[in-house]
Amino acid sequence: MDQTPILAALQRIVQTNRLPLHVPGHRQGRGLPEDLGRWLGPAAKLDLTELPGLDNLHHPEGCILASQRLAAAHYGAEETLYSVNGSTAGVMAAIMATAQGKQVVMAVPFHESAWRGLVMADASPVFLPGTFDLDCLEWLPPTPDSLDSLLARLNGMGTEVAAVYVTSPTYTGIVAPVARYAEIAHRYGATLLVDEAHGAHFGLIDLLPPHSVACGADVVVQSVHKMLPGLTQTAWVHRQGGRVEGPALANALRLLLSTSPSYLLLASLDAAQAWLRTSGAKQAGWAMVATETLREKGFAIPVGYHRDPLRHWLPTGSLVASRILAKTLEVSGAYVEYADAQGVLSVFGLFTTAREVDEYIRIIGKAGYGLSGCCRSLGEKNGFVSGGQLRTNGWRELQDLSLAPKLALRPRQVWQSRHEWMNPMQAVGRIAGEAIVPYPPGVPLVYPGQVLTEAVCKALNRVRQDGYDVQGIDSRGQVAVVAGE
Length: 485
Fold this sequence. Notes:
By secondary structure, the protein is α+β, with helices and mostly antiparallel strands. About 40% of the residues lie in helices and about 15% in strands. It has three domains: about 85-255, Type I PLP-dependent aspartate aminotransferase-like (Major domain) (Aspartate Aminotransferase, domain 2, 3-Layer(aba) Sandwich), CATH 3.40.640.10; about 290-390, no CATH class; about 395-480, Orn/Lys/Arg decarboxylase, C-terminal domain (Ornithine Decarboxylase, Chain A, domain 4), CATH 3.90.100. The strands form seven sheets. The chain has a seven-stranded mixed sheet with strand order 1-10-9-8-6-2-3, with helices on both faces. Strand 2 (about 105-110), helix 5 and strand 3 (about 125-130) form a beta-alpha-beta unit. It starts with a helix and ends with a strand.
């Protein structure tokens, strides 16, 4: 039980708590509606509050602190903080703790939670574009040389950059050269913040990429629930080195979390850190064996990057083709992570079996797809490639235009402004009031504060007409703009 201090403390309370005179109101599951209670079962007894011996997430001194230290020891971090509000809270806290009112280099593309962090910190973004791989129809993180050049230019202009924010791995599984990023950022006096939401399993064995703590990042945010055996909404934040103050990071995270955190989620985090240190490496080895076929016949790794071997990206070059393939899998009982205009993403994870991989290969083969081959062959099949050239559509045009948009207002200013809604073609020259985000993957196509050029508005109109599912376009097909601007 010393390996799972939170879970052990909860079990002690459950065994002695005969008369619960405290919240929550379901009284250890007794009062839950029958349909829900039947599914939760005994787990509902662990849904407790800050009783004696259960510590307090906002001022940990007992079992929660002990569990966080065990998690930190696994990753080699100086400190690990638990989040019951997902990686979203962790990402926002990282930016708030390092960049209040300052400039942040944002490697594009990035998740919308980072934009929320800019709002909270009243920070200003400097965009560092990645590149789009036309063979695999996926985004690659920026090259180290491009980061070095940007920081050198900003330094020459006398612009102080507080932090560099990068996403690794990307949603499709591309792992950035974080160690090189860290060396470059630190050389210019900036901290390195890494959104590693999909990489909490990294480093378990040598066949997996190293995690970003080992690569020298200052703050690393990981979702536990995405790739580890944790409940949805669990995450943790790792800090190391002296560039980010521990109290500042803890205070920022505290601001974003509930004052009544779920002990079910805390128990899940506790169990996950113990699993990492006891069973994780062995399970990772089994997963690599099970998914060997995906690696043998899958896409090559772009030069200078790694790829998460436990997810499979199948480019189609067509929203219609992606949805057909996703539906074909769904009919067979297989649900993919997402299907968009670029392709279909399947996350296999650490608990995949060889039988499941074989079933996946059989289904996509029956649908006319193989494991490998560039998007040109798949795109030609789906009418997306003509004469060896990719045809543009609204989705791709927006992605190109979102690499380094012109911002007329800081994120905080846009958030505080009044908005009005209008048809995209009427919004030319106006300032975007809200992010326009396909979810998943949650990467903005249009940023708040961005000047809506004619090209952007035309692309938005096409996205709307083609029936893409995005946040930021309402049921009338209208977008938000800053009122009076």
